[in-house]
């Protein structure tokens, strides 16, 4: 897969990169006796932006880890442009929820150049790539600083630039804005659309935030509550940009997503032996923020 | 005509912070001085109470130190002990760090070596003095080996603990950015482990000072430990006091130097001491 981009280094956008198509076929993931994900199939088109939406603990991050090659499925297959995922691959970039994934002892520039350096690019190429992608996320002026000196939002930008500097064909994002404050998150979501258009890669984006999914995705795949999570429904998002999650055109989709998530939250509550009546109340609130938050907090299993 | 007054700009933050740090530093130094003075006072009282045959007074100790310094014994002892400590400790680091990385990284190695580490770390170096002399003779190597012994396990334990504490997301990030196993070890595991290694090195330095006296118990001509042991034969309590105090001061200085150098050179790895 790596070869595919390197074979064409001269074309337009530096790398002539297009997104790769991703196929998830009957994937089943277990950790010992814990059944995390059951029989998931998804076809993601090249260049598509797919959101995996569901309450925390439902296994969406687990599915993402499998796509990134960190976790091997128990059954089923994962393929990128027809080649199976066999392990971590620079073509499949991963943006982690926590900026702990950054290398604190390297400068921002060195962090972004890490991928190209590991892959034996020349020094000139390394700094050109770091410069280009730091520019794309608006952090060119921070190249010489250390991650510890940046704010949470800036650190996530560095993570995004670091992944993009490898010119991957698929970018996997695990609630990348989940730990940010509301204002920063909003800015990052707006930036995300621009960055995505500039790079054209396929994006699989995990979130438990309904509005975020509506803002960003071409399609939203809702997952059922874990364990043994599966895909509950897939919704196309046919909204013109720039999007506004509170716009009237989005209302119907929003209602549908809320209802789906609400059902899953109630199911999770019942599974945990909590009062189903309380669950009903919650269902009504789901989507207004409180509900999604609660849904997010329900998962007791580690969401990875 | 307009005149711009530059002086109106407030003092830069950095400068203010620096002067605050300087004030705090002075305060710490002053308290140290007070603490030392009180200690010397108590020591003086004890010396007066028990007499010179049991407790050498501060002034007796000072003049004994002067005597030992003039004939060169003190300097030679310091140099000899420092040399043994630095060589043994340095070897302990040179072996302990790679071993710790290896043990932390590879489960089989860990399982194979763990029983020995858990066994030997409870046996004090003094238990090996006889064996060291029998096996290695009365030269320098027996002493250096004992310092090495006391350093290496603590370095291994700290390094491997550091390796096992490296965050999973950093390792995954490196792997998915295209780093192979060796690149991950060098580029992620080692840098993440540096603060643990430094802690291990400091503890090992402390152990080395605890061990040097035992290491010089047999057949050492010079050294602070040797000075303390031979003073007993001459009945010179004041020399014993000189040896003990020099050892303490030397250890303090070594640790200070280590801390300052490590926190300057390795700051970017998160070493804050």
UniProtKB/TrEMBL annotation, chain A:
Organism per entry: Streptomyces spongiae
PROSITE patterns listed in its UniProt record: ABC_TRANSPORTER_1 (PS00211), ABC_TRANSPORTER_2 (PS50893)
SMART domains on file: AAA (SM00382)
Keyword Nucleotide-binding: yes
Residues passing through the membrane, by range: none
Protein name: ABC transporter ATP-binding protein
Gene Ontology MF terms in the entry: ATP binding; ATP hydrolysis activity
Signal peptide: none
Lineage of producing organism: Bacteria, Bacillati, Actinomycetota, Actinomycetes, Kitasatosporales
ABC transporter domain mapped to chain residues: 22-250
UniProt keyword terms in alphabetical order: ATP-binding, Nucleotide-binding, Transport
Region (Disordered) residue spans: 269-304
InterPro entries, A to Z: AAA+_ATPase, ABC_transporter-like_ATP-bd, ABC_transporter-like_CS, ABC_transporter_ATP-bind, P-loop_NTPase
Pfam families: ABC_tran
UniProtKB/TrEMBL annotation, chain B:
KW Cell inner membrane (keyword) present: no
Record's keyword terms, sorted: Cell membrane, Membrane, Transmembrane, Transmembrane helix, Transport
Subcellular location: Cell membrane
Pfam families: BPD_transp_1 (PF00528)
Keyword ATP-binding: no
Stretches that traverse the bilayer: 24-46, 85-104, 116-138, 144-166, 209-231, 237-258
GO annotation, cellular component aspect: plasma membrane
Superkingdom per UniProt: Bacteria
All residue ranges annotated as the ABC transmembrane type-1 domain in the record: 74-262
InterPro entries for this protein: MetI-like (IPR000515), MetI-like_sf (IPR035906)
GO biological process, one term: alkanesulfonate transmembrane transport
Topology with respect to the bilayer: Multi-pass membrane protein
Broad class of where this protein is predominantly found: membrane
Family, as annotated: Belongs to the binding-protein-dependent transport system permease family.
Protein name, UniProt field: ABC transporter permease
Annotated organism of origin: Streptomyces spongiae
């Amino acid at each position: 897969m790596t070869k595919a981009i390197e074979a064409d280094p001269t074309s337009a956008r530096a790398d002539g990169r297009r997104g790769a198509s991703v196929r998830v076929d009957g994937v089943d993931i277990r950790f010992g006796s814990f059944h995390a994900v059951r029989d998931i199939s998804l076809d993601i088109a090249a260049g598509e932006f797919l959101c995996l939406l569901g309450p925390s603990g439902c296994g969406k991050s687990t599915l993402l880890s499998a796509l990134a090659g960190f976790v091997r499925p128990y059954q089923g297959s994962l393929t990128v442009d027809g080649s199976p995922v066999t392990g971590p691959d620079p073509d499949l970039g991963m943006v982690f929820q926590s900026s702990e994934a950054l290398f604190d002892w390297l400068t921002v520039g060195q962090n972004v150049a890490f991928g190209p350096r590991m892959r034996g690019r020349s020094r000139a190429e390394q700094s050109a790539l770091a410069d280009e992608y730091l520019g794309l996320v608006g952090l060119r002026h921070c190249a010489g600083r250390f991650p510890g000196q940046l704010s949470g939002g800036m650190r996530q930008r560095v993570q995004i630039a670091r992944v993009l500097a490898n010119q991957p064909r698929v970018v996997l994002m695990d609630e990348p804005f989940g730990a940010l404050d509301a204002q920063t998150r909003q800015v990052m979501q707006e930036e995300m659309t621009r960055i995505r258009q500039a790079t054209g890669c396929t994006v699989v984006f995990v979130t438990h935030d309904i509005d975020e999914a509506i803002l960003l995705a071409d399609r939203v795949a809702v997952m059922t509550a874990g364990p043994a999570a599966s895909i509950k429904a897939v919704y196309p998002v046919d909204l013109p940009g720039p999007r506004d999650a509170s716009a009237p055109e989005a209302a119907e989709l929003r209602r549908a997503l809320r209802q789906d998530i609400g059902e899953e939250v109630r199911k999770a509550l019942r599974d945990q032996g909590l009062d189903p009546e309380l669950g009903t109340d919650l269902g009504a609130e789901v989507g207004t923020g409180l509900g999604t938050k609660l849904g997010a907090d329900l998962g007791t299993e580690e969401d990875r | 005509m307009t005149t711009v007054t530059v002086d109106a700009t407030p003092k830069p933050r950095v400068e203010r912070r620096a002067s605050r740090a300087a004030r705090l530093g002075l305060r710490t130094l002053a308290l140290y001085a007070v603490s030392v003075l009180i200690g010397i006072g108590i020591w003086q009282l004890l010396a007066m109470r028990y007499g010179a045959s049991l407790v050498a007074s501060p002034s007796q100790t000072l003049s004994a130190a002067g005597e030992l310094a003039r004939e060169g014994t003190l300097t030679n002892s310091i140099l000899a002990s420092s040399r043994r400590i630095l060589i043994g400790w340095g070897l302990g680091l040179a072996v302990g760090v790679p071993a710790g990385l290896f043990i932390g990284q590879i489960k089989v190695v860990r399982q194979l070596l763990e029983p020995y580490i858990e066994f030997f770390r409870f046996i004090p170096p003094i238990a090996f003095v006889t064996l060291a002399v029998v096996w290695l003779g009365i030269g320098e190597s027996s002493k250096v080996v004992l310092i090495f012994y006391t350093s290496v396990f603590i370095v291994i334990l700290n390094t491997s603990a550091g390796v096992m504490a490296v965050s999973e997301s950093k390792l995954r990030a490196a792997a998915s950015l295209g780093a192979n196993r060796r690149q991950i070890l060098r580029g992620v595991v080692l840098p993440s482990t540096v603060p643990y290694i430094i802690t291990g090195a400091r503890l090992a330095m402390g152990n080395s000072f605890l061990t040097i006296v035992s290491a010089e118990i047999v057949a050492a001509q010079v050294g602070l430990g040797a000075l303390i042991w031979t003073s007993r034969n001459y009945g010179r309590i004041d020399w014993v006091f000189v040896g003990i105090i020099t050892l303490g001061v030397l250890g303090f200085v070594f640790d200070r130097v280590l801390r300052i150098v490590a926190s300057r050179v390795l700051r970017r790895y998160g070493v804050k001491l």
